[in-house]
Amino acid sequence: MKHIVTAIDGSDHAYKAFDFAVDLAQKYGARLTAVHVISDRPLTEGERRMAENEYLGDVVEGLNLGGLMESKGDPRLFARELLGKHGETGLRVRRAIGHRYLDEAKSRAHHKGFREIDTSVEEGDPADEILAAAERVGADVIVTGSRGLGNITGALLGSVSHKVAQRATCTCINVK
């Protein structure tokens, strides 16, 4: 086992899978790549509120508003206005949030003494992008989190972990 890929979506399930992947990588001396996949669809109301309340600093940085707003006022107020009025900011907002999730993952790995980790934020279908990342790095194993869905429910809902397991050419571990 030389390279493990895992996906981070900010959920408890994903971080549990990530912790398992770190332990596995430590045991086998493997590299680890954590991937976060973002969508290009408009922000949901919940995502917009989360961006405003929890990640506004990341949004300001991700939109590079600090330099733009130096002469016009508070970039945080401008970011709030953009989030409320302009759907095209969704991709940048999701990218900023994705980087925050991956920073948290790196911090968790470093806390365990593990440093052989790469991260990437990709855009598209989550299963496709996880599989593409695994192929790109030559992964031996893909570790995904589960929300506890059974095979029938997972197939009906198009579960990412189910799609990955069905289409991967390497070993897949689904952590419940």
Explain what the structure shows.
The protein is of the alpha/beta class and 176 residues long. It is built from 9 helices and 5 strands, in the order βαβαααααβαβααβ. A 5-stranded parallel beta sheet has the order 3-2-1-4-5, with helices on both faces. α1 links the parallel β1 and β2 (31-38). The protein starts with a strand and ends with a strand. Mean pLDDT is 81; it is low at 148-158.
Sheet bearing the most strands, described? 5 strands, parallel
Helix amount = 55-70%
Q: Number of helical runs?
A: 9
What is the topology, as strand order, of the major beta sheet? 3-2-1-4-5
Q: How much is the average pLDDT?
A: 81
Structural class: alpha/beta
Distance between the termini: 22 Å
Unreliable spans:
148-158
Work out the radius of gyration.
17 Å
- Judging from the principal axes of the Cα atoms, what is the shape? globular
Order of helices and strands: EHEHHHHHEHEHHE
Determine the strand fraction and express it as a percent band: 15-25%
**E-strand count:** 5
Task: Give a short summary of the structure.
With 176 residues, the protein is α/β, with parallel strands linked by helices.
Key features of this structure:
alpha/beta, five-stranded parallel β-sheet, 176 residues
List the helices and strands and how they pair.
Layout: E1 3-7, H1 12-28, E2 31-38, H2 45-54, H3 56-62, H4 65-68, H5 75-85, H6 90-111, E3 117-123, H7 126-137, E4 141-145, H8 151-157, H9 160-167, E5 171-175
Parallel strand pairs: 1-2, 1-4, 2-3, 4-5
Helix pairs in contact: 2-3, 3-5, 3-6, 7-9
